[in-house]
TrEMBL record:
<dbReference type="InterPro" id="IPR019812">
    <property type="entry name" value="Hydgase_assmbl_chp_CS"/>
</dbReference>
<comment type="similarity">
    <text>Belongs to the HupF/HypC family.</text>
</comment>
<dbReference type="InterPro" id="IPR001109">
    <property type="entry name" value="Hydrogenase_HupF/HypC"/>
</dbReference>
<feature type="compositionally biased region" description="Basic and acidic residues">
    <location>
        <begin position="96"/>
        <end position="105"/>
    </location>
</feature>
<dbReference type="Pfam" id="PF01455">
    <property type="entry name" value="HupF_HypC"/>
</dbReference>
<feature type="region of interest" description="Disordered">
    <location>
        <begin position="84"/>
        <end position="105"/>
    </location>
</feature>
<protein>
    <submittedName>
        <fullName>HypC/HybG/HupF family hydrogenase formation chaperone</fullName>
    </submittedName>
</protein>
<feature type="compositionally biased region" description="Low complexity">
    <location>
        <begin position="85"/>
        <end position="95"/>
    </location>
</feature>
Length: 105
């Protein structure tokens, strides 16, 4: 799933002619392109989708949305390590399968 997630701008810099920001998504920090919001400043919040800041957001709305996503486990799903997630899914699938010997009984 690809969510549009609110994040707080921690820093802004220009790289090869492109404004980029370091953004905090409730504890997960990622690099984000500011081409659609070139005047976004440190401390402001924005909705980010696939690495692009798309729309400014007030702090209250951002915090409520991040809290909701966290409670639903959506932040881990969106930002978690894909290898770790695959391993957890495999372990859950193994745990759900009956053992070969038990299935024959």
């Amino acid at each position: 799933m690809c969510l549009a997630v609110p994040g707080r701008v921690l820093g802004v810099e220009e790289r090869d002619g492109t404004r980029m920001a370091t953004v905090d998504f409730g504890g997960v920090v990622k690099e984000v392109c500011l081409e659609y919001l070139p005047d976004l400043k440190v401390g402001e919040y924005a909705i980010v989708h696939v690495g692009f800041a798309l729309q400014r957001l007030d702090e209250e709305s951002a915090r409520r949305t991040l809290e909701l996503f966290e409670n639903l486990g959506m932040l881990q799903e969106e930002f978690g390590d894909p290898w770790e997630q695959a391993e957890q899914a495999e372990q859950a699938a193994r745990a759900a399968r009956p053992e070969a010997g038990e299935a024959r009984r």
